[in-house]
Recover the amino acids of this structure.
């Protein structure tokens, strides 16, 4: 008979008697009563070795009062879940990138960055996407089928972008674009010339608006116009003759004129809506200076803003780029650029949501102040607050480089209410 | 007395210069043609005399020859002193004595060269030393005695007033002396400490010398049980295995109690006391560490699909951050919530990732053997080999630095060493290496050695066996283990020698000689016969390990020369050479700073494979000590175009900030995590580094140095060096399937605390001042030892370069080195005011 103490977890079972004539299994059964650990799961440690069930006590030279240690638990044994998790590394390469949450890029076909960035911007408009995917080629017997073809090409390009996770080479689209607008096919030293993204944007909208006109008049007549078009009500005022006339026009973008006093997008927009022009005054019988003041009469779902950074330097006869830093917010409020009528319409919804929005505004301006690099920006406002006159920044195209004839375009698209990704 | 940093060197040096210029014929630097004109009349006279003497030396008359020789000693004051009357040496003042001392030193070397007797000089030395020791000039006395090679004389002259300063100077001078003088100097310091019953310091030196005889002597010389307890705490921090015998502690019950302290059984409790006091018990998730919300810019809502690589990173981060706390939010979720997703974290890791995940439980329960084994038990019954491997490794980790009579780690792991599956074998082998590092356990050797020479064993099993043996026998110079590893190396085929893991074989061999200097030579000789593919690698590893922590300048130069070579083919031996630079130079501050500067050069001029090792080297030099300059260098390198350099720099950022919660490094790593968001490998490294910086929620350190940077824990250094060697080939080891080598860091993990306990070893809180340590070597009087201090109550955290002192007279600490566990005794003379 031996007496030992057994340490198990934080407990110590003192003075347990071992009947050395019985195999260790009996001892384990004793411990089972004390600890509740089934004998087969007990591990008893004796001086650097484990106690075997069939061991001989006499060979172990145990001393009276020796301390033993037991490991074991009645816990459930870990089991692997029936269905293991799917790991990103197991997925095919293409899907791995998709899981990082970025959409596919477009391959530069040689000086086509203006086109790529424009298309990425257009792509960021979900309504246009759905509109295009529903588009059925009209195949009318019009003489000019090119707008239709281009729209089909656009539609195909977008669906390809949706499916693919790798960069897409927009070759068919590029062919169609050149066919419709030969100016983009101009060559210079054997290469395609650099082009203006703004021009591309305007032309694309033009084409799309032509071909996306609904076949039946009952529906919205012009999807593109509803999305991007805005009406300006302009008042022409001649200071000399006090003549006044007003007109409305429909445009696709607001221009942000940049002069030396413009530091912020908002100021530029105001600037762009006021202009002087010379025209023949019927009252005076000669040309006179008219002041044109425009106000927005109706707002589109997406507002396009163009920073007019390229201008013609008259003295040196060359195009130049204005490198002035202009801040733009991630949220744009154009309330005070609206006409009286529109303001009235906007007021009610604004009241309800003003508080939350104000806070957001300050935030947004803070984080966007560093982006003075961006030059020609086509900005689009999101329409969650369509009725409030407040726009979220959805995407922008920026031009990098100092001169007007060269440089690179990059599109920045906002990801689901989070961050900008190139 | 005003502080005179090292008056002997300054004034003595000047004097000596003067003396030599007076005798131009002895000064080779003087230009010959100008000699005559430049000399004053006095000099001219001297010169003539000298010529006369030279003439007379050649004289056949021996009488005349002798006087000539004596007078020729160009040392005026010494000459007169020797021929003149013997009087009080101090009556001519300090300046005279110093001058005399300088002259004696030179005369001594001269006579040694001629092998002429020095007895008359030694008489003078006796007087001078006695004078210096009485007049607060211990440093000068020591300098003189070192010059005349008779330090034993010191013993006669030290007294209770000056022995501390004397020993302080001796120990710090030892760092700059070439061997074997350094050992001699420390020996004297030890003898003096024992003489004045300053046992903690004596023990410190005994540990430094790695002299178990001395350690034992400290125990036998001291009779106070409480003080012996303090010794045990010091030994446990150093991490060596020591079996107390009845001679050291006679009473059985007492001995058992002291052995418990040496065995570190209460480390977990102490650490948790600290954690509760600082209020950081709350478990942290990897997301709490990543702090992604602070990043502006590119943050997506996270990938929708689990990434095995990133989950593995999270496993490590979780393990490092919650190390030793016994609770976390991934692995130790209460069993009743097994249905929850958290309990399945283990299975969110893939294949070999499960090994690291299971082992992370051991890290979370670090030092708490009882709970650790209880919780790891469930993995033992799994039928998934990687999980069993993890459980085995986890047992090793839990037992790291803790010894137990029942040897649970050996009992549990021993069974699995020879299993079929190699991942299980590696788990068991590595676990043993970690649990028994430094123990020199014969039983383990006899079971691991055969693996090394088993022709059927896979390479990775052999590599880990060599490594574990190296750790278990670290710094032992064990012949048999060395032989086994050497044979294993010789048996490797050409192809195997090219494998990344083969590097663990030379490393295991090197660890056997860690810090043992010349003892390595025989083995180094043998290594020259190895296959050329591994020969130089082995050479460099052995050299750097053997001289690790010695600050040996010659070895640093050897290694630098290796790094400077521009090799045609891609040779891997330069990696360990660069690491070796840091290993050799890391021990003392001056050498360390010089090394940081010279690494900058290596970075500029070195080849690519040298550059890759430089960040790791910097990481070792400043481990858990985030110096701003090094931080900046590493931050720059973390954006290097060579991704291997960048990875090494990122891991090193983690190492230098390990356990500090350093906000600047944390910010850098956060930015890197967004910079490298697309590169899974680099992101993995960033995550690991983030985990390291917040290791133990800022309560731990990886520094192998302790006791005011005097002592170097061999096991801790072994753990770090192993990881660094693994980092030399990041892609195949850490980014491959052997990521669990990261757990070798556990060997270096120690709480960076000072915890005061009363005479019953219960924690008590007392006010202490914590401030930047001041170097007081060679300063007279009782200078302040810390500066810019703040007062806290214990337990407190000590950062690198900080020192604590008691802010109350109510208690007397039993060790002058206030680190780790400190026993306080009530001061009998204390009166409440």
């Amino acid at each position: 008979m031996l007496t030992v103490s057994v340490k198990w977890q934080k407990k110590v079972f003192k003075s347990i008697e071992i009947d050395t004539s019985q195999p260790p299994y009996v001892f384990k059964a004793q411990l089972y009563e004390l600890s509740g650990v089934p004998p087969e799961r007990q591990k008893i440690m004796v001086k650097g070795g484990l106690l075997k069930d069939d061991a001989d006590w006499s060979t172990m030279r145990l001393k009276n009062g020796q301390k033993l240690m037991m490991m074991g638990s009645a816990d459930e044994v870990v089991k692997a879940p029936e269905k293991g998790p799917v790991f990103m590394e197991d997925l095919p390469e293409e899907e791995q990138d998709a899981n990082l949450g970025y959409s596919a890029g477009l391959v530069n076909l040689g000086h086509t960055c203006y086109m790529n960035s424009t298309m990425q911007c257009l792509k960021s408009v979900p309504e246009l996407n759905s509109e295009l995917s529903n588009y059925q080629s009209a195949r009318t017997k019009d003489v000019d089928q090119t707008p239709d073809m281009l729209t089909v090409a656009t539609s195909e390009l977008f669906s390809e972008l949706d499916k693919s996770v790798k960069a897409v080479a927009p070759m068919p689209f590029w062919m169609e674009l050149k066919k419709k607008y030969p100016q983009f096919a101009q060559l210079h030293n054997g290469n395609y010339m650099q082009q203006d993204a703004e021009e591309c944007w305007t032309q694309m909208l033009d084409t799309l608006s032509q071909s996306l006109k609904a076949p039946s008049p009952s529906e919205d007549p012009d999807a593109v116009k509803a999305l991007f078009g805005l009406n300006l009500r302009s008042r022409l005022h001649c200071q000399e003759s006090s003549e006044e006339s007003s007109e409305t026009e429909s445009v696709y973008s607001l221009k942000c004129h940049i002069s030396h006093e413009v530091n912020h997008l908002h100021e530029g927009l105001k600037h762009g809506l006021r202009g002087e022009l010379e025209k023949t005054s019927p009252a005076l019988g000669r040309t006179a200076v008219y002041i044109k003041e425009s106000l927005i009469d109706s707002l589109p779902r997406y507002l396009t803003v163009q920073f007019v950074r390229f201008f013609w330097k008259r003295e040196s006869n060359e195009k130049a780029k204005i490198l002035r830093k202009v801040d733009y917010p991630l949220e744009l409020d154009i309330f005070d650029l609206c006409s009286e009528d529109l303001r009235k319409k906007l007021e009610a919804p604004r009241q309800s949501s003003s508080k939350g929005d104000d806070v957001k505004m300050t935030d947004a301006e803070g984080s966007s102040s560093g982006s003075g690099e961006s030059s020609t920006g086509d900005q689009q406002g999101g329409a969650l607050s369509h009725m409030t006159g407040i726009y979220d920044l959805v995407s922008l195209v920026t031009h990098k480089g100092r001169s007007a004839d060269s440089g690179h375009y990059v599109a920045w698209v906002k990801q689901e209410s989070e961050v900008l990704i190139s | 007395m005003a502080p005179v940093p090292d008056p002997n060197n300054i004034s003595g040096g000047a004097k000596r210069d003067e003396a030599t210029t007076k005798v131009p014929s002895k000064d080779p630097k003087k230009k010959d043609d100008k000699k005559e004109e430049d000399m004053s009349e006095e000099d001219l006279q001297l010169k003539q005399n000298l010529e006369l003497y030279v003439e007379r030396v050649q004289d056949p008359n021996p009488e005349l020859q002798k006087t000539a020789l004596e007078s020729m000693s160009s040392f005026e004051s010494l000459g007169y002193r020797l021929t003149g009357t013997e009087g009080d040496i101090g009556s001519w003042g300090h300046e005279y004595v110093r001058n005399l001392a300088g002259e004696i030193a030179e005369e001594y070397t001269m006579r040694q060269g001629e092998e002429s007797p020095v007895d008359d000089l030694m008489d003078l030395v006796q007087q001078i030393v006695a004078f210096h020791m009485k007049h607060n000039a211990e440093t000068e006395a020591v300098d003189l005695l070192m010059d005349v090679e008779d330090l034993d004389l010191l013993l006669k002259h030290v007294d209770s007033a000056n022995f501390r300063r004397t020993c302080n100077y001796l120990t710090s001078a030892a760092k700059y002396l070439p061997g074997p003088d350094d050992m001699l100097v420390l020996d004297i310091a030890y003898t003096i400490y024992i003489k004045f019953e300053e046992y903690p310091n004596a023990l410190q030196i005994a540990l430094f010398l790695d002299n178990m005889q001395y350690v034992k002597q400290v125990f036998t010389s001291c009779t106070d049980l409480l003080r012996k307890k303090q010794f045990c705490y010091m030994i446990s921090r150093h991490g060596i295995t020591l079996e107390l015998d009845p001679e050291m502690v006679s009473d059985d019950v007492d001995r058992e109690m002291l052995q418990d302290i040496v065995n570190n059984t209460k480390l977990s409790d102490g650490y948790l006391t600290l954690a509760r006091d600082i209020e950081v018990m709350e478990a942290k998730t990897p997301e709490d560490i990543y702090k992604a919300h602070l990043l502006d810019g590119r943050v997506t809502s996270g990938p929708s699909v689990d990434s095995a690589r990133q989950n593995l990173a999270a496993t490590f981060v979780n393990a490092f951050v919650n190390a030793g706390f016994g609770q976390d939010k991934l692995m130790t979720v209460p069993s009743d919530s097994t249905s929850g997703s958290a309990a399945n974290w283990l299975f969110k890791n893939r294949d070999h990732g499960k090994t690291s995940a299971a082992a992370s439980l051991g890290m979370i329960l670090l030092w708490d053997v009882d709970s650790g084994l209880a919780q790891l038990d469930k993995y033992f019954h799994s039928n998934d080999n990687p999980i069993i491997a993890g459980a085995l490794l986890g047992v090793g980790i839990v037992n790291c630095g803790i010894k137990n009579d029942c040897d649970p780690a050996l009992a549990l792991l021993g069974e699995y060493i020879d299993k079929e599956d190699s991942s299980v074998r590696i788990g068991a082998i590595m676990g043993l290496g970690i649990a028994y590092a430094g123990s020199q356990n014969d039983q383990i050797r006899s079971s691991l050695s055969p693996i090394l020479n088993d022709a059927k064993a896979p390479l990775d099993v052999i590599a880990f066996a060599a490594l574990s043996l190296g750790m278990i026998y670290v710094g032992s110079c064990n012949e048999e283990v060395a032989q086994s590893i050497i044979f294993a190396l010789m048996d490797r085929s050409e192809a195997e020698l090219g494998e990344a893991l083969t590097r663990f074989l030379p490393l295991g061999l090197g660890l056997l000689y860690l810090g043992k200097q010349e003892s390595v030579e025989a083995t180094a000789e043998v290594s020259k016969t190895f296959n050329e593919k591994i020969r130089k690698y082995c050479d460099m590893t052995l050299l750097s390990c053997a001289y690790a922590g010695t600050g040996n300048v010659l070895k640093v130069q050897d290694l630098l020369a290796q790094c400077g070579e521009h090799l045609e083919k891609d040779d891997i031996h330069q990696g360990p050479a660069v690491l070796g630079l840091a290993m050799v130079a890391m021990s003392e501050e001056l050498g360390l700073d010089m090394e940081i500067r010279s690494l900058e050069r290596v970075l500029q001029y070195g080849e690519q494979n040298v550059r890759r090792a430089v960040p790791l080297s910097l990481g070792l030099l400043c481990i858990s000590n985030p110096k701003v300059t090094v931080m900046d260098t590493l931050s720059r390198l973390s954006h290097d175009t060579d991704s291997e350099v960048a990875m090494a720099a990122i891991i090193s950022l983690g190492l230098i900030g390990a356990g500090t919660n350093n906000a600047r490094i944390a910010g850098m790593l956060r930015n890197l995590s967004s910079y490298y968001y697309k590169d899974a490998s680099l992101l993995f490294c960033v995550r690991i580094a983030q985990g390291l910086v917040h290791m133990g929620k800022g309560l731990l350190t990886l520094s192998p140095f302790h006791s005011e940077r005097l002592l170097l824990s061999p096991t801790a250094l072994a753990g770090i060096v192993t990881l660094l060697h693994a980092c030399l080939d990041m892609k195949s080891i850490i980014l491959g399937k052997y990521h669990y080598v990261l757990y070798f860091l556990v060997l270096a993990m120690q709480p960076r605390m000072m915890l005061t306990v009363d005479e019953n070893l219960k924690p008590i809180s007392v006010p202490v001042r914590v401030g930047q340590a001041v170097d007081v070597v060679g300063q007279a009087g009782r200078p302040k030892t810390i500066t810019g201090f703040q007062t806290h109550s214990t337990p407190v955290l000590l950062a690198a370069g900080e020192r604590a002192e008691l802010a109350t007279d109510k208690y007397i600490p039993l060790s002058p080195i206030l680190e780790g566990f400190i026993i306080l005794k009530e001061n009998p003379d204390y009166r409440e005011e």
